């Protein structure tokens, strides 16, 4: 069972990453303990963020690289503040044009469009 | 170095298996009902087949690889009688591997009921011969080929599930075994990282070419290997999913790239390329579902496949046991019946990554020793095979008309 502490923590994979992955769901305003190779720090979640989803650790301007695992996983599509949820609504792939339009909550594509 | 040992099955072709299954192979969809009925109520009988009437080298090659798999002791091939793929020729190729095999066309033996009855008789005789042929032999990690596949990935997969499997792969390779991972379309964005892992300049060339083919394929079909469930689980882009997926390959040098139904030429870590090659018909989707990838790994000789699923999954596999691993505690709690291993304990701080990998290798050895994995116990044997084209040497067995 995940304990209460783990529920409000997030893991930063690379020391220079500007996002961390939530290890449990957090409520708006909750303090998140970020652990990883860059050490331990605290950040306030600006909104509800689910387990496995990403929280911004630093401010990012539109067009700036979003880094996880020490590699660029996407580009910010608008200004992102620390503590915000980073997902389809504010981060796009450099390769895959299609998935940027998917539903931010469910991941479902907007229309049935096989292949 | 891992030190467990257990008793396996030595085949006449020298390969060693951890199960002694019988396989029913149907050569067209029209024969699939009879094939499934033959296997009904026979726990050691697994059923695979190809739905197409017009044959396909890739599909025949895959069926032959499974029919001569080290976990298989005998084979029955069932055809309708009209199709291109010839059951008698598959049976002949299986006999050449030293395993007993039988075959028949349904149209030559009456209808459904008489064909099922004939099939049941043949299975009983194959079981007798396979048990007489089964030589028990000591096995260790060096005799194992293990595959790794991920599916239903979420934000925990790249942090816990896949890295734990990667460490188990490292131990397997250090112990002289063979490890295979695939899903090149889930390495998109990581070309330099892939090539940097090559064991030799030749392997580097293969890895680069394999990446380029997969990337061009994804661009051409405008489909990257990332699905709604991945997004719902917190993965935002294919680049992010790729980094998590690649972690299951561990940290050892990659010896080279094999194609579907080829066996690794020697021990170590290998990448399997299941992406279709350019062809005038352009058929075949690269990872149409998890089951296809799992069957590709088994066709490469994997006696066990590790399946990492953050979101959770309820599949299994014929021929070789599937061990299901999740890095998501909630998924483990919700689907304990189906999940063999909870790697989420690494994220909650209960276990270190190394402790989790050690526990996983013990579980692998238990399953190799005969303990059923959860999908095996539940009777899961999902199978999927469709038309695809890969440029590999022509079939020696000649199973076409």
TrEMBL record, chain A:
<dbReference type="Pfam" id="PF08666">
    <property type="entry name" value="SAF"/>
</dbReference>
<dbReference type="InterPro" id="IPR052172">
    <property type="entry name" value="UxaA_altronate/galactarate_dh"/>
</dbReference>
<protein>
    <recommendedName>
        <fullName>SAF domain-containing protein</fullName>
    </recommendedName>
</protein>
<dbReference type="GO" id="GO:0016829">
    <property type="term" value="F:lyase activity"/>
</dbReference>
<dbReference type="InterPro" id="IPR044144">
    <property type="entry name" value="SAF_UxaA/GarD"/>
</dbReference>
<feature type="domain" description="SAF">
    <location>
        <begin position="17"/>
        <end position="92"/>
    </location>
</feature>
<dbReference type="InterPro" id="IPR013974">
    <property type="entry name" value="SAF"/>
</dbReference>
<keyword id="KW-0456">Lyase</keyword>
<dbReference type="GO" id="GO:0019698">
    <property type="term" value="P:D-galacturonate catabolic process"/>
</dbReference>
From TrEMBL, chain B:
<dbReference type="GO" id="GO:0016829">
    <property type="term" value="F:lyase activity"/>
</dbReference>
<dbReference type="InterPro" id="IPR048332">
    <property type="entry name" value="GD_AH_C"/>
</dbReference>
<dbReference type="InterPro" id="IPR052172">
    <property type="entry name" value="UxaA_altronate/galactarate_dh"/>
</dbReference>
<protein>
    <submittedName>
        <fullName>Uncharacterized protein</fullName>
    </submittedName>
</protein>
<dbReference type="InterPro" id="IPR007392">
    <property type="entry name" value="GD_AH_second"/>
</dbReference>
<keyword id="KW-0456">Lyase</keyword>
<dbReference type="Pfam" id="PF04295">
    <property type="entry name" value="GD_AH_second"/>
</dbReference>
<dbReference type="Pfam" id="PF20629">
    <property type="entry name" value="GD_AH_C"/>
</dbReference>
<dbReference type="GO" id="GO:0019698">
    <property type="term" value="P:D-galacturonate catabolic process"/>
</dbReference>
<feature type="domain" description="D-galactarate/Altronate dehydratase C-terminal">
    <location>
        <begin position="142"/>
        <end position="388"/>
    </location>
</feature>
<comment type="similarity">
    <text>Belongs to the UxaA family.</text>
</comment>
<feature type="domain" description="D-galactarate/Altronate dehydratase second">
    <location>
        <begin position="8"/>
        <end position="130"/>
    </location>
</feature>
């Amino acid at each position: 069972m995940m304990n209460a502490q783990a529920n409000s923590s997030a893991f930063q994979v690379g020391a220079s990453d500007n996002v961390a992955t939530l290890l449990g769901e957090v409520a708006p305003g909750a303090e998140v303990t970020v652990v990883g190779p860059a050490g331990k720090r605290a950040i306030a979640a600006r909104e509800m963020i689910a387990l496995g989803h990403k929280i911004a650790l630093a401010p990012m301007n539109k067009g700036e690289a979003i880094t996880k695992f020490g590699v660029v996983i996407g580009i910010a599509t608008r200004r992102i503040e620390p503590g915000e949820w980073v997902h389809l609504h504010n981060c796009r792939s450099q390769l895959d044009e299609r998935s940027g339009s998917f539903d931010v909550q469910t991941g479902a594509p907007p229309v049935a469009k096989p292949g | 170095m891992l030190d467990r040992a257990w008793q396996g099955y030595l085949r006449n072709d020298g390969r060693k298996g951890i199960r002694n299954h019988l396989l029913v192979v149907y050569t067209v969809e029209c024969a699939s009902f009879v094939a499934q009925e033959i296997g009904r109520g026979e726990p050691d009988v697994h059923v695979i087949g190809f739905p197409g009437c017009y044959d396909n080298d890739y599909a025949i090659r895959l069926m032959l690889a499974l029919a001569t798999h080290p976990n298989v002791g005998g084979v029955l091939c069932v055809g309708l009688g009209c199709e291109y793929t010839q059951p008698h020729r598959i049976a002949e190729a299986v006999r050449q591997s030293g395993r007993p095999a039988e075959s028949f066309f349904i149209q030559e033996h009456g209808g459904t009921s008489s064909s099922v009855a004939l099939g049941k008789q043949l299975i009983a005789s194959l079981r007798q011969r396979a048990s007489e042929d089964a030589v028990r032999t000591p096995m260790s990690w060096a005799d194992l080929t293990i595959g790794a596949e991920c599916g239903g990935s979420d934000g925990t997969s790249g942090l816990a599930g896949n890295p734990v499997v990667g460490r188990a792969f490292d131990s397997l390779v250090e112990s002289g075994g063979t490890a295979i991972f695939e899903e090149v379309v889930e390495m998109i964005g990581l070309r330099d990282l892939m090539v940097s892992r090559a064991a030799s300049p030749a392997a580097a060339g293969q890895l680069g070419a394999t990446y380029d083919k997969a990337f061009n394929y994804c661009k051409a079909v405008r489909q990257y290997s990332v699905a709604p469930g991945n997004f719902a689980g917190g993965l935002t882009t294919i680049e992010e999913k790729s980094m998590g997926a690649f972690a299951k390959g561990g940290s050892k040098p990659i010896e080279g790239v094999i194609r579907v139904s080829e066996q690794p030429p020697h021990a170590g870590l290998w990448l399997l390329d299941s992406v279709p090659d350019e062809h005038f018909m352009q058929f075949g989707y690269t990872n149409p579902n998890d089951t296809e990838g799992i069957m590709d790994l088994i066709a490469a000789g994997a006696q066990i496949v590790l399946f990492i699923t953050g979101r959770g999954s309820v599949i299994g596999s014929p021929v070789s046991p599937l061990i299901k691993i999740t890095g998501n505690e909630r998924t483990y709690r919700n689907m304990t019946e189906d999940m063999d291993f909870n790697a989420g304990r690494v994220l909650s701080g209960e276990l270190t990554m190394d402790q989790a990998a050690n526990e996983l290798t013990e579980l692998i050895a238990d399953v190799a020793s005969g303990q059923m994995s959860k999908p095996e116990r539940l009777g899961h044997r999902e199978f999927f095979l469709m038309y695809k084209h890969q440029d590999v040497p022509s079939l020696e067995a000649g199973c076409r008309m």
